[in-house]
Structures are given as structure tokens and as C-alpha cells.
Amino acid sequence: MGNSRIKLWLCDEQKIIAHYAVAHQYSADILTSSLPPEFYHHVDFIGVSSVLEDKINHELENLCLSLWACMPHFARTDFSTLGVQCAYTEPSLLGIDRWLNILAVSHQQPVCVVSCGTALTIDVVNNNQHLGGYILPGMNLQLSSLVHGTQRVRPHDITSISLAFGKSTSEAVHHGVLLTCVAAIEKVVVALKQVTDNNVQVVLTGGDAEKISPHLQIAHTLNPELLLFGLQRYFGQLS
């Protein structure tokens, strides 16, 4: 359960059988009227990653008991998981979505993992140590802040975005938003390369990853289901 959507995966061991996503509107009850038929079958285990408040998590617990007679298990950020040490002095303050993304790529160290969603989060791991990271507004949040924080900046959608100098207000805004994301990612990778002699792996995930990817001048991979693999690894379903 992320900031804007609930994503579900139905798995048999390591195989993904079905997947579904819906805007949650800050209520887990949206699932009662929208789940595809295959999700009504019996399940043995429910693992959850949630960045939402306790009220919505409690709704999900009731929903899981009602639909599957199974209490969900919530993943938590800890000082150490699967040998990876958390950089935060209070690990519970690190979003579980970031932690699971880290765990999903921890076998590729040194690694920079970037989640391009509502927020743009960047985390780096080296020698089984999470070194920390950054949280920036995502592309839509940047656009929204410009619209709500100014009186005359009213960009309209454009057919394509690039890093070229904008020759209209709309181009300047959309290209600037993209530049912010690209520059932040590339700068972090440069910084990580300064503390390791090994090749840095860069992994992008999240809804805007495909928009940002073509404009990066560094080698990287895309994995839209990265959090799933982190969740599977967290609960011991993936080696």
C-alpha cells in the first residue's frame, strides 16, 4: 500500500500468478468492490508493505480476515534485515517501501536504487551497509507545487519531454522537472562511485521510471515490480 495506490500480487512460491492495482483514496475498503475474481481464492500467507496510517492498515486486516480468513503480516524496517544494516538511528522512521526496495537489490552491491513514484527516493548500499539516501518530490508533485505556488505558471501537457532548454513555459516546466530527477540520480551515483572501487549498479522502479530512464547518461536497469521482490525476500519466499 503506497502513497497513491494499492498493488496486489498473487504468488505461488516465487511465481507471480496475477497482479492488480487500484487508487486507494486512503481506504483499503476500495478492494471489496474491485478485486478481480482470481484474488478471491484461498491463500496461505499475506505479506504487506504499507506506508499508510494505522487506521487504513487496520481496515486491511479486517478485509483480509473477511476475504481470506488470514491475518496479514506487515513488513517493518529494522536495524538489520538479511544482513543489510540500516543507516537510520531509528529504523522505524525509514519507509518500508524504501527498505524493501533496498533488500530487493542488496545482492547487487554497490547499488543505487531509485523509486520514481509520488516521491523520488534514492538509496545507496555498499558492503551490506545502507549509507542513506534522499527524498525529493516526484514529477507530479513538482508540477503541482509550481501550479499551486505561483499565479502565472500554468503549464499544459506536452507531447514529449526532454532535457533541452524549454522554449515555452510548458516546456520549461516539464523539462525542468525531468532535469531535477535526472540530475539528482546522476549526482548520487557519482558520489557513490567515490567511496567504492566496484561498478555501481543502478536500478529504477516506480511509475515514472520509464519517463526518466531514456534521459539518464549512466548504465541502469528497470524493474517495475522491485518492491514485490523485496517483500518476497523479506518474508523468506525468495533467496
Largest sheet: 5 strands, mixed
CATH architecture of the largest domain: 2-Layer Sandwich
Shape, please?
globular
How much helicity do the residues have?
Answer: 25-40%
CATH topology of the largest domain: Nucleotidyltransferase, domain 5
Query: What is the end-to-end distance?
Result: 23 Å
Rg, rounded, reads 19 Å
Number of domains in the coordinates? 2
How does the helix and strand content classify structurally? alpha/beta
Average pLDDT metric? 92
The CATH C-level class name of the largest domain: Alpha Beta
Biggest sheet, spatial arrangement of strands: 9-8-7-10-11
**Helix count, per DSSP?**
6
The stretches of 5 or more residues where confidence is low (pLDDT under 50) are none
Beta-strand percentage? 15-25%
Q: By CATH's scheme, which homologous superfamily of the largest domain applies?
A: ATPase, nucleotide binding domain
